[in-house]
Amino acid sequence: MTVTVLLEAQGLSAGYAGRPVVKDLDLSVTQGQVVVLLGPNGAGKTTTLLALAGELPALQGSVALFGGPAPAGLHRRARSGVGFVTEERSVFMEMTVEENLRVGRADAGQALELFPELRPLLRRRAGLLSGGEQQMLTLGRALARTPRLLLIDELSLGLAPLVVARLLTAVRAAADDGVGVVLVEQHVEQAMRIADHVYVMQRGAVVLSGPTAEVADRVAEIEASYLEAAGPVAS
Ligand SMILES: Nc1ncnc2c1ncn2[C@@H]1O[C@H](COP(=O)(O)OP(=O)(O)OP(=O)(O)O)[C@@H](O)[C@H]1O
Fold first, then answer.
1. Which residues contact 105 (CB under 8 A, 6 or more apart)?
2. How far is the CA of 231 from the centre of ligand 1 (A)?
3. Ligand 1 touching residue 81 (CB < 6 A)
4. Domains with residue ranges and CATH for the chain
5. Nearest CA to ligand 1 atom 16
6. Residue identifier of the C-alpha nearest atom 24 of ligand 1
7. pTM
8. Count of helix runs (H) and strand runs (E) in the chain
9. For atom 5 of ligand 1, which residue has the closest CA?
10. Mean pLDDT throughout 93-101?
11. What is the ipTM, given to two decimal places?
């Protein structure tokens, strides 16, 4: 079986005002693969996604996309097939669900197929939806644009475990249909459940990576390393 590499970052450094925050990152995503980035606050996960999405330029190294050099800039990468779900809730709160689905190149029917829960809410203003419904709308809209690669930052921040599971199941299903996914996620165990490959970052560098089955036993260790990195808890 041929494996199609969608994204390949090599020796990638990226940061702010010319100062690298993420250093010497090697990361690849193949078709149908869910890659999860784990790590404590400030490890550089969001910065990595911004660099892969084209929002931040590579200070060093390279990003290849769909078999060629990645075009510069967020919009050109988006047009080439990269979807990006950012940390901020990105629905238009004043618009209805239906209007949100019509914005951009989303196929509303496809979004509703993915999340039938949204169908009875089509006329409701997005600002009146629950956090979980808003994220279903965000993810449904992103997937309905049929990206080849989807970058997702903290989709499940502040949501109940059942809702997180619902969202991540949809991410897994999209990958099973061929989308490549890079997912930043704080819910370690839930993320590991849908991940094919895991990267753990600390202080801007990858400290552990491998196929999920091989690193799964080290989840407790990974989580302990978060707590260590966060320092002693003040009493
Ligand atoms: N716009 C910015 N300008 C300067 N430094 C920044 C900027 N955004 C983030 N940083 C710094 O870059 C480092 C990595 O941040 P980043 O947001 O990538 O981490 P993260 O792993 O996504 O953390 P979190 O889980 O808290 O979102 C941090 O030290 C952060 O303070």
1. 145
2. 18
3. no
4. 5-230 (3.40.50.300)
5. 44
6. 41
7. 0.92
8. 9, 10
9. 16
10. 93
11. 0.95
- With tokens 């407790």, the residue in question is 220
For residue 39 and ligand 1, the question of a CB distance below 6 A is answered with yes
Return the amino acid letter for 189: E
pLDDT of residue 69: 94
**Percent above pLDDT 90 for the chain:** 76
Residue 51 has pLDDT above 80, yes or no: yes
Strands (E), the chain: 5-16, 19-30, 34-38, 60-65, 68-69, 82-85, 149-153, 180-184, 197-202, 205-211
- Per-residue pLDDT tens for 190-234? 999 999 999 999 999 999 999 999 988 776 676 676 656 555 544
Mean pLDDT of the chain: 90
- Report the separation in Å between the CA atom of 42 and the middle of ligand 1, taken as the mean of its atom positions: 5
Whose C-alpha lies nearest to ligand 1, atom 1? 16
Q: Residue 7, Cβ neighbours under 10 Å: how many?
A: 22
Q: Is the CB of 22 under 6 A from ligand 1?
A: no
